[in-house]
Amino acid sequence: xxxxLQLQRQFIDYTTSLHNEGYLDNxxxxxxxxxxxxxxxxxxxxxxxxxxxxxxxxxxxxxxxQQRNVDYKQVDAxxxxxxxxxxxxGAKRVTNVCAHFKGFCEAKNLDGCLRCLQQVKQEYIFFRxxxxxxxxxxQQILQAGGSVPMVE
Amino acid sequence: MTEGIHGFSSPRADVFPAGLRVLVVDDDPTWLKILxxxxxxxxxxxxxxxxxxxxxxxLRERKDGFDIVISDVNMPDMDGFKLLEHxxxxxxxPVLMMSVDGETSRVMRGVQHxxxxxxxxxxxxxxxxxxxxxxxxxxxxxxxxxxxxEGLEEILMMRNVSEQxxxxxxLFCGGDxxxxxxxxxxxxxxxxxxxxxxxxxxxxxxxxxxTVDLHQKFVKAVNLIGFEKVGPKKILDLMNVPWLxxxxxxxxxxxxxxxxxxxxKDDLKTSASxxxxxxxxxxxxxxxRTEPIKIQQNEAVSSHRTTNHTIHEVDVxxxxxxxxxxxxxxxxxGYAAKTSIHPFESTQYSQFNSVLPTQYSWGGGFxxxxxxxxxxNNNAPQxxxxxxxxxxxxxxxxxNTSIPSFQLPDPVIGPTWSMKQDPCxxxxxxxxxxxxxxxxxxxxxxxxxxxxxxxxxxxxxFNDQEFINDALKFDYDYEYPDLWEYPVIGQGLFIV
Lengths: 152, 496
Prior knowledge:
The structure holds 2 protein chains of 2 kinds.
Chain A: H1 2-20, H2 26-34, H3 42-66, H4 72-89, H5 92-106, H6 110-143
Chain B: E1 21-25, H1 29-41, E2 45-49, H2 52-61, E3 68-72, H3 80-91, E4 95-99, H4 104-112, E5 117-120, H5 125-129, H6 132-146, H7 148-161, H8 186-192, H9 212-225, H10 232-239, H11 246-269, H12 297-300, H13 316-325, H14 333-338, H15 425-432, H16 435-440, H17 452-455, H18 464-475, H19 480-483
Parallel strand pairs in B: 1-2, 1-3, 3-4, 4-5
């Protein structure tokens, strides 16, 4: 059906652009490969877990940086965690910002940390939006009776 | 947490490494989920854990329930490196570390703490596919360490046999690879192989539980054969336990040797009389040492001991720890390293709760103690204490408590030691002897004729208890309390 084909095409293009723009990396592809009949919603499940977890982490980060006496070790620990989980689903840009974030923590640079916090929140929101768009496309394809293409 | 089927979650024997039992520890739920999925795709059996402490509990509970552990470095409740050490010490499993941080210093720490590998996140599935190599490698090494020629023979045989079931009982998993013949643990072995041993066709992969009785038979057999000449087949034949396989014996033997080695070390270290053996390998003094077990002998040795021979109850714990840290190759390291005494090759008495039914009757002045199980037949010259001073040979007595079982049916004490009466020797005399041998083998016993009577056996202060406990739990599904019933007998009276 042409609409399915179109949707699929769109999906492929979108995925490719996400990769090109650095929003997604190979890890995401790995996740997609893990999805199979026994676990048809694997990717969405994992990503949902990530979103939930990230919300918490971001809150923790914000709180930690709002303290009068910032505990940089704590902030670093949160940033590390966020970096780890972001890497799990291939959220490349988010992961990169976290790396910078850790640098500022080590340097106990409050300003740097606050800026990074902003940045990471932003990247995270972008990422989230894009992924949600991708999933919507997927749903549309499936609903139209097509199968979701694998983009390598 | 997805639990694998305890015990029987074995891979199809012919397709190792499928079914490899992996424990994944990570506080990040997303990663845990992903890793679980990846590992399952590799046909491994996965159990997940979000906390280090939980993981340790699981591991302790299900001894031999896992083949390999993968853990993240950053855990909230415990440092990943600490977990790594614990696992290495207590369970002797290969551990892989993972982290999103790949800084050299961290990786180095991982290796220092004993990690088999350090994986960087994001982890690809292909990296996980190959983790079985660590399990295999360990097995191979263990085999090599344990039984010299026999082990090698077996390994070679295994290699040749590949898919076919060798009737030596080495079954190896299929064609892809021939895992070491000796599994670290019998259960593992069972898991990977079809137990179609020619001699015992226990097709069902039941785990061998080394009960006290079984172990006693084992020890007797070992003593009869002579520690130096011992080999799984011989032991098996002597034991006359139809359902037991050579592999079971081999693996048990290996552990036994480790245990003995450890005892040795501990023995040295902890002399009953409290003399610390200077040669003790520092490694031995690990935290595991609990209280030194004094040779219970006195208590335990009922029949034989007239005097207070001390059966050295090796403080297993200490040994355990020591043992644990001993890499198979170096079993005798600490001990043996120092001394040139015969490397007790197989004194690895890994956690054996040495229920050695050997009682060492330390009669005053018994010189040649043949460590034989029951009677002094000198057929088992195993512990020949060549050089005197085998004092303080620590018998891997199992815990102080139970030495009672350490009774050799006859007053022979395993190793033939010419012990010198050396009251103080308890520990010191061991110095000369490289306890290593003695421990189990009593081979090199010092020639000191220790008059055990007086000495009360200083047996090393092995933290037998813990050791024993650990030993017990190591392989056998023993619970600590059970330890007390086993006669701990390190072969070879270590007369300290």
